[in-house]
């Protein structure tokens, strides 16, 4: 039942995203903002056709990718053990890109959106959501912190994802708060450090968890 509701939710967001682009297409400029620097200034533009429909396409890829990955995973039986958390993460990712889409459209229509605050804040919220549900995952080949050590030991997988969950929540809080308090280089450095923490520390930790398990 939850998966059905999730599919309806994600499909509805995708349809709305496409309808927004289609309905506003003639009002959009020929060149639309695609990337911003650390000060929130546009530093790269894309063609209207590309920029208006790229985020909805990303939403489709994410939704279908997470929907069908469990079907081809050699460890697909494990997904039933954390289906709820997996579904919530899928919804969160699709929602994140939906917000990105709205921001791009609104900015293109000359609305004053504080990009340097909105996007980092949303990244922080996404990290917090991931951090809350990541520890509930079970060993698989497509989702989670996959290292040679987590994939060969259920205990190492469990310990690594428990640590990873805490780091994601901590980093998400730091990113969200800093997006409201700082700007420019300070905000960018905090973001980089936070991403480094969640991207590297769990991998290193999984090695030591494995080493201790062998002993």
Automatic annotation (TrEMBL):
Keywords: Membrane, Transmembrane, Transmembrane helix. Residues 13-60 form the DUF1648 domain. It comes from the Bacteria. It comes from Clostridium uliginosum. One of its GO terms (biological process) is response to toxic substance. This is Uncharacterized membrane protein. InterPro entries: DUF1648, SdpI, SdpI/YhfL. The chain crosses the membrane at residues 7-25, 45-68, 88-109, 115-134, 163-182, 188-209. It holds the Pfam family SdpI.
């Amino acid at each position: 039942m939850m998966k059905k509701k999730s599919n309806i939710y994600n499909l509805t967001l995708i349809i709305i995203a496409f309808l927004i682009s289609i309905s506003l297409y003639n009002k959009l400029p020929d060149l639309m903002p695609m990337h911003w620097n650390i000060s929130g200034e546009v530093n790269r533009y894309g063609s209207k056709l590309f920029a208006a429909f790229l985020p909805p396409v990303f939403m489709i890829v994410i939704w279908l990718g997470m929907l069908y990955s469990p079907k081809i995973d050699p460890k697909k039986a494990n997904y039933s053990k954390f289906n709820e958390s997996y579904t919530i993460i899928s919804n969160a990712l699709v929602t994140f890109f939906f917000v990105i889409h709205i921001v791009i459209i609104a900015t293109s229509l000359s609305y004053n959106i504080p990009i340097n605050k909105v996007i980092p804040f949303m990244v922080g919220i996404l990290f917090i959501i991931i951090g809350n549900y990541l520890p509930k995952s079970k060993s698989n080949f497509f989702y989670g912190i996959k290292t040679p050590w987590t994939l060969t030991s259920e205990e190492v997988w469990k310990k690594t994802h428990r640590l990873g969950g805490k780091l994601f929540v901590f980093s998400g809080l730091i990113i969200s708060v800093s997006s409201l308090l700082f700007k420019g280089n300070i905000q960018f450095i905090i973001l980089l450090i936070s991403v480094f923490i969640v991207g590297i520390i769990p991998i290193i930790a999984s090695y030591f968890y494995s080493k201790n398990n062998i002993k």
